[in-house]
Amino acid sequence: MDDARSLSLLTLLVLCAAAREPPRVTQRVNGRVLSRPGFTLKLPCPVEADPPPLIMWTKDGRNIHGGWTRYRVLRDGLRIAALEQDDAGSFVCRATNGFGSVAVNYSLDVLEEGISGSSRSMGDMNSMKNIPGAKPRFTQPAKMRQRVIARPVGSSVRLKCAASGRPRPDITWFKDDKLLPPPSLPPPPGRTTSKKPWTLGLRNLQPEDSGSYMCRVSNRLGEISATYHLDVIELMRSKPVLTGTHPINTTVEYGGSTSLQCKVRSDVKPVIQWLKRNNPGFELKENSTIEVDGEYFTVLRTGDVWSRPDGSYLNKLVITRASATDAGMYICLGANTMGYSFRSAFLTVLPSKLPHNNTTD
Fold it and tell me: Cα–Cα distance between 72 and 66 in angstroms, integer?
């Protein structure tokens, strides 16, 4: 009986396996693909299998994932929007299930406007005729949001202006309205221009590198530009300096909320601490009260210190449900290993508008 049951189970497994199959390519594809910048391209992956396979795309050996913003993996292929020169390369669609694996290979060539077609087949070049033009546009605006950049002396920076258009646009860089040499020319000592066509890279920054950098992208149909402001900061070992006008005298209604700000410029990340001068009749707290020239100050709990693009540091003291005990003088203290600076401001809490209850016997 046991032998019969084992034989039945074995037969069932064989039948189930026979119904399954490894991935297979269902139609022939042209592995060599030609296209132009700005086009939307779809590379098909005609594969079938049972059970359905797991599809994975790679470009030049790198896995394509959701972070590739212009790439989208579809059920039956890969779609690339707004083609660029950098999209050229080797693409592989690999389909895998528990019974095997198969790959579909492509070699993508993104042609430049005006390239000779002598080495291309007539059919390929005929498909490129009558291509409509497109004005230049920036393809990675999210990487261009930070336009005011502060860097210390000796560091590096990369300014990006990735763009596309038809015909393929040219890019030129300017510093303070003066044309910079193209990447094909040798850079000055200590400077380098990025090899990527849409990026200006500078290393070993010096104070004279501070200024406005503009990229101008143009073709026969239009022109776009973007400007970066670079501030190269000399690292002078000095005590912090409170910049701007904060903290400033502030008034808040009873029960309301407000904040005091402190902006500090320092070579390194400073320690920012808030103190409050105690009012007469305060309760002495050993762990949070200090005495300075006969006056007592409470050391307040300080929140996070934020680094700003201009190289300064910011901290806010938030006061909620303000009452009369919150009124008084506050001091912002910025300190590093070279010393400290401070500035004071006064907080006024307006009296409560609630009526007092008067009772009579």
Answer: 7
Q: For the segment 4-51, what is each residue's pLDDT rounded down to a tens digit?
A: 444 444 444 444 444 467 888 988 888 888 888 888 899 999 998 878
Task: Please give the helix or strand (H or E) that residue 120 lies within, else none.
Answer: none
Q: Is the dihedral of CA 31, 35, 38, 41 positive or negative?
A: negative
pTM: predicted TM-score of the whole model, two decimal places: 0.37
> What gap in Å lies between CA 93 and CA 103, rounded to an integer?
5
Strand, helix or coil for residue 74: strand
Structure tokens that stand for 139 in this block? 């393809």
Spatial separation of the C-alpha atoms in residues 309 and 203, rounded to whole Å? 19
Report the candidate in 99, 102, 95, 100 with the shortest Cα–Cα distance to residue 54: 95
Residue 113 phi/psi, 5-degree rounding, is -60, 130
CB atoms within 10 A of CB 332: 24
Q: Count other Cβ atoms within 10 Å, centred on residue 261.
A: 16
